[in-house]
Design a protein that fits this description.
Order of helices and strands: HEHHHHHEHEHEHEEH
Structural class: alpha/beta
CATH class of the largest domain: Alpha Beta
CATH topology of the largest domain: Rossmann fold
Strand content: 5-15%
Radius of gyration: 17 Å
Strand order of the largest sheet: 3-2-1-4-5-6
CATH superfamily of the largest domain: HAD superfamily/HAD-like
């Protein structure tokens, strides 16, 4: 599913790097690589209608960036459902996968271009998403030819999801890089917290919710303004 270059090539690339140089770029998916948040919000509203439950736009925004099981527990409690969090997640996934199949994917400005530039520059990349494999695959299958991730970490591959550091630590371990010299691209507070806790420098590209700034975060209006050389400069300044 992830495509990308052979692991031996990635190791060779890293061996040529000085320790303080950019070692990897780690992309969030929902809201960062592509704007799938409206599909999730629509699925949540549809679930509320099916069960005649209360659900507000603020509820939906509260869940942006969180692990699916955490979101499932919140939805169950907020809507007063007799379902387990896992059952809630399964229903939501059915809806969002169907939406992507029907409407396609809206890529965020500059995201695929940055990924392609990383590939061409020999910088290892990972997709680090709290969406489960079957939804991530439906998105990645719709990527245009060319740009590809070396590693994909989905929410069903980690015990603790964002905002815990586990997803980014797992991605870095699978790439064989140090998080200290890696950049994470995020659009949500919980995602930025996860990446920062893992030790990454975080470039935030807010989408549907604001993200507080910290010493280890740099905010940009769009990935169209971000290139590999810029990321290298940010890492060198740490």
């Amino acid at each position: 599913m992830s495509g990308g270059r052979p692991a031996t090539c990635r190791r060779a690339d890293l061996e040529r790097m000085h320790v303080s140089e950019l070692q990897a770029v780690l992309f969030d998916m929902d809201g960062t690589l592509c704007d799938t948040e409206p599909a999730w919000l629509a699925a949540e509203n549809a679930m509320a209608r099916r069960y005649d439950a209360q659900w507000t736009p603020q509820d939906g925004l509260h869940l942006v960036g969180h692990s699916l099981l955490s979101a499932g527990a919140y939805i169950r409690d907020r809507m007063g459902l007799s379902l387990t969090p896992a059952q809630v997640v399964d229903e939501l996934l059915d809806d969002v996968v169907a939406t992507v199949a029907r409407l396609g994917v809206e890529w965020r400005a500059g995201a695929l271009e940055l990924l392609r530039e990383c590939n061409e520059a020999g910088v290892p990349t990972a997709l680090v998403t709290m969406s489960y494999d079957r939804f991530a695959r439906s998105v990645l299958d719709r990527m245009p030819p060319g740009p590809a991730f070396d590693v994909v970490v989905t929410g069903d591959r980690v015990e603790r999801g964002k905002p815990a550091p586990d997803p980014y630590l797992k991605a870095a371990a699978e790439l064989g890089v140090e998080t200290t010299w890696s950049v994470a691209i995020e659009d949500s507070p919980s995602g930025a917290e996860s990446a920062e806790a893992a030790g990454c420098l975080v470039v935030t590209v807010p989408n549907h919710v604001p993200i507080p700034l910290t010493a280890n975060r740099r905010q940009r209006a769009s990935l169209a303004d971000v290139g590999v050389e810029h990321l290298r400069e940010l890492v060198a300044q740490r």
